[in-house]
Specification:
Four copies of one chain form a homotetramer.
Chain A: E1 3-8, H1 12-22, E2 27-34, H2 39-47, E3 50-52, H3 58-63, H4 72-78, E4 81-84, H5 90-102, E5 105-108, E6 119-121, H6 123-126, E7 135-138, H7 141-156, E8 159-169, E9 185-186, H8 195-202, E10 208-215, E11 221-229, H9 235-243, E12 248-251, H10 260-270, E13 279-282, E14 287-289, E15 292-299, H11 306-317, H12 322-333
Parallel strand pairs in A: 1-2, 1-4, 2-3, 4-5, 5-7, 6-7, 8-10, 12-13
Antiparallel strand pairs in A: 8-11, 9-10, 11-15, 13-15, 14-15
Helix pairs in contact in A: 1-11, 7-8, 11-12
């Protein structure tokens, strides 16, 4: 008997989550929702039972001749769990309007405030904490990228302060109204950016401060990290540890990976919609100066949280232990890619 | 017995051509070449027999532990035809160095001068002319986009002068050294841009003038066309004719296709590497004012010439008639996509 | 006795209008308004008497220690005429709220609908029509650029249909929230863009159709024009006519003007805030093919309407005839620049 | 008797240096050179005696009807000192070809290797070291920005390790051929970027590691700094110290300075070609977490080294002491701007 998963919202995250859930053998997508009848709704209807996220918009779908099976409320009544993939802050509204009403377990995304859920989640770092929980929040793309890396390092080495500069793509590739066209925007100007405190919702004992900047690019975020080492560690120690974690992929400038543009060019060959579920770490960027370890990683903001959403389902429903879930997810999604 | 195809160059065009040839039932890729041992070479070696395009670089591949089967000369001796996918102007050098020497039929890309080949080719417009030829040049992405549209219109309607403004993406997504970061560049300043004369290499009797501009974007080119109508034609006449041509896809702003960013977002869902082999025409852009027909189309520069290369093989080797070849190619490549 | 001018709004247009008015010998700026106490307000207060555009915001200015002389209503009572430089559509609101109430003559910008005023204005094309009028609208940057060029051509040659493709910078250099980061956006998709009809508010008898595209750049708009010639005209005839019009500046690719980036680099040397009040026409872009004249021009969207606003004052108050006003404005603003 | 200064190269740096020298009362520009007869050469000829940097190109200038006074060799014979403003690495060639031959003192820019000169120079940090020297190198824009800030801090506080992430504009506004259009490029991938070691050419005892990234923007660089404090310091201590240094300008997000785009918008109002000679530090970015001080600053790459070049002249010719020179330069250039 498979877990029946509802995906509320079929945008950047929702469409990836729906596909990833479909690829697992212990769960199935029983429906997805969409607010308006655009090309993404048509794609949704081709692959899934489609429900209308905003009941008042039902007639718009009829007019566009897109078949819908009902409204979000109809969908929720059939599901074991819902993954909320609606835009920032709408998740909290959905919780009040629907999820509490129908008593359904729900997973939220990192755009929501931490207090929307009982646990802020990352599969590698705190899978156990989500066990049996009703509301879980998968932390955002940047936080997921930081947590995976820091957790992997601190599990293997004694580390101290973490300082990270976050170079953020200003909008996703599909957005054509917002932006920053020519400039660099500290966001925020005052330290810290929210990423540091957000990391602490998962890894409470890390001494981390982050600064963040919006940049006129769409492809990936990049993190420039400086991490204090509190024991003797070599570059190859770090490389070995990162190579052992499937959700972290080491790439090499030598192979032609000179920028995020080249990383995406590679991903276009090997993954649908060029989705990179892994942290992408430049091997040559791993360097040590005195007690400080330096690492540069690129994060595909559209895709990195997808495996975490799948694992969160298993943890909340207690249908698999951590290692089993992560391995199942990785295998189904082809993590890690081989170069 | 399948046609044995060599693909010389495995960059933006080469890797797509190789895959498209592999998908046909009457031809096979017997090898591809690469100049340097980067990540694209590794991908090439995973799927094809790999040969070194520049014999002197053989040791670099060995050092990078990428298995190669020999040099480009070894490859050419086994092939029935070569598709030259090397950068602009290198094709002409390869012809002199290798193709003439081995007496092999060769297809060149649009970056070469027209006189590199006997025929400048577009499958819809002049398939017959390539029959039995030794050297054929598939015209460039922008020219292919213009030729398909103009040919389709002039086959169905009496048309006069064609005026097109070409809005060109300045570099491909993978390029990270060249560009235009913030500005608009007439290229060239003086009329006409080369696209008009290039169209005439395929459609000699069209009265066309083009102006062209480089723009700081990577995704697609856009053409803004104004075409004189010499008979009474309605917008729905034009829509019908374009809908009947599989290599032209009509999209609608109503479905959320507001920019090239949205078109690519759609393509990421339905095609590997988001390849769009079709001219993408905005349905609402088709308008008539007096005797002038206006059309706006977007052209995916990385992909649009791929089906034409496949058809060129069949024409040159005379293994299929025009309609049969085009249908085979379209079926194998999934042309057109359904939205 | 100088004309007492109020400038309502001190953003991109307002600050330039205020300075341009200050440079004339027959008018003076008696005050400018600002909605919020940011760095532009501080600059305003340094050079002009500053009034608060939104009376409720008075305390914010006090808190920021910026001296204000009162509210917009205080200012209007002292002025002979107001130039409304508020954002799109706010001008119409200001008219109802204030200008009608105080019976003051007002100039609006091109972001307002044509019916906000009695006349849509361009100094070269219809100065006479604004004489004595109460409400005049200076047409937008793109329309001003088109009108100047078309008016100059049609005054000298018999011309027919005009077809223009408008390549628009998506945001001004100072905007850091909106945009289009990587893509090309037809805006609108359906023909015609509003520019053609807007040209007709000034030049009613021109057969013009425009298409328009938003592009990820901030510096200048570019227009690619195709104009039907109804008599025998040579390229040098056109060059001569354009050279005779001070508000049109011919530049040459030969001098290194390869893109809008180079034009702005030049402007930075010769004009405060690199303001280009002139249409910038590439000399080499002027070409004739059959009966069609081709011209490419760049338009500095922040500056091109400034001289028109100054002339509108003189026309409305009937203090100078057309040629006298234009010459005074040109002289005061240093139009045209010499290269 | 004024110092006779030759400026060899009249590009981005050269034209600014020439103007800055002209504004001093103790030196004069006796000539500038240019390699080709473009619009920048015409501007040069309007303000200065123009010489040809590449003697073979003399006829090109004649053809373009630009008056030249001779070749670079003619110029050098009349000068007391030359400021080499040629592109990277050409300065070293000029030294060998010309400066050694004519025994002239020379100032080089930061694009040259440190060993081109006896001293790597920053006026605040090591004015004394340049006294009487024959060859001095003014460090690059990014290094100048770092040195000014670090020197000011270490003069006032005990500081330890400095970690800086350099967010670099990929090209200057006038460049329209190179770039990075959509992506983020670590440059270099391996730590450290050259900026850290370059800082040490001026401040040898600073423990600094820098990482650097190229970004698709043209306006300014941004530095995100984390500096270890070795004594008890408050944010307002830091603010006070930075406010006291005229070559560092504190700006406030509260005033609307949300990005480099807004900073440049401000600069357009107050400085020719929007030149910002000062480090631009966001006041709200100054924060302390434990022992770590965080600061974000923006650097106008085209302008920041200009005052340093002027001071280098005085130091090398020993015509003023450090404080006198800096004050003269600041006064002549209007440093600092008041907001």
């Amino acid at each position: 008997m498979k877990v029946r998963v509802a995906v509320n919202g079929f945008g950047t995250i929702g469409k990836r989550v729906a596909e990833a859930v479909s690829l697992q053998d212990d769960m199935e997508v029983i429906g997805v929702t969409k607010t308006k009848p655009d090309f993404e709704a048509k794609l949704a209807a081709k692959h899934y039972d489609l429900y209308v996220a905003i009941p008042e918009n039902l007639s718009k779908f009829e007019k566009a001749e897109i078949e819908v099976k009902g409204t979000v409320e109809d969908l929720l009544q059939k599901a074991d769990i819902v993954i909320d993939c609606s835009p920032n802050k709408v998740g909290a509204e959905n919780k009040k309007l629907y999820y509490e009403k129908y008593g359904i377990k729900a997973i939220f995304q990192g755009g929501e405030k931490a207090n929307v859920a009982e646990v802020s989640f990352n599969a590698l770092a705190n899978y156990e904490k989500a066990k049996g929980k009703r509301y879980v929040r998968v932390v955002s793309c940047n936080t997921t990228g930081l947590v995976r890396l820091i957790h992997t390092l601190k599990t293997n080495f004694k580390i101290g302060r973490v300082r990270a500069t976050m170079l953020r793509r200003v909008v996703d590739p599909k957005e054509d109204k917002k932006g920053l066209v020519n400039g660099i925007m500290p966001d925020p100007v005052a330290i810290p950016s929210h990423h540091g405190p957000d990391v602490k919702t998962v890894l409470p004992d890390v001494d981390i401060v982050t600064t963040a900047f919006k940049l006129p690019t769409t492809l990936m975020h990049v993190h420039s990290l400086c991490i204090e080492l509190k024991e003797n560690v070599t570059v190859s120690d770090v490389v070995n540890v990162l190579e052992d974690e499937p959700r972290i992929l080491l790439i090499s400038e030598e192979d032609g990976f000179t920028s995020t543009a080249k990383i995406i060019e590679f991903a276009r060959e090997v993954r649908k919609r060029y989705d990179l579920f892994e942290n992408i770490v430049w091997r040559e960027s791993i360097g040590i100066d005195g007690n400080d370890l330096f690492i540069t990683q690129a994060i595909h903001q559209e895709a990195i949280v997808i495996p975490e959403n799948v694992d969160a389902i298993r943890a909340m429903l207690e249908i698999a232990e951590k290692d089993e879930s992560i391995e199942k997810t990785n295998t189904a999604l082809g993590i890690p890619i081989k170069i």
